[in-house]
Amino acid sequence: MITLNLHQVFKTRGITKGYSFLVKNGISPGTAKSLMYNKPRAIRLDHIEILCKTLVCEPSDLFTYTPEKKDTLPDTHPLKKLIRDPEEASLKQTISHLSYQELIEIKKLIKSQKTSPSAPIKNE
To answer: In terms of pTM, does the model score above 0.70?
Structure first.
């Protein structure tokens, strides 16, 4: 089943009042309520566009796929990309709370690993 992943996207972006965010960005109060508190069975393309523009994301970030027990998809099936790993959500949340300086340090660490892949990562 494909479901809307707004709560996780808002959490990652540090948005605590999702309903207000939606209304402020051009989604009607009724639709915002439906998107936030119900399991919508449909979503308009213009709403997906609004969400992607304001949240700086792509449509695939907005949706999650949870396979039914009877469903078996090959590993190469595109829907597999929408299966969310709990560890991924935790990592995104951790990154969203890092300071600018901490992000710069991580970038430097990644760059140094790319230039010398055999160098061990230092734990400080």
So the answer is: no
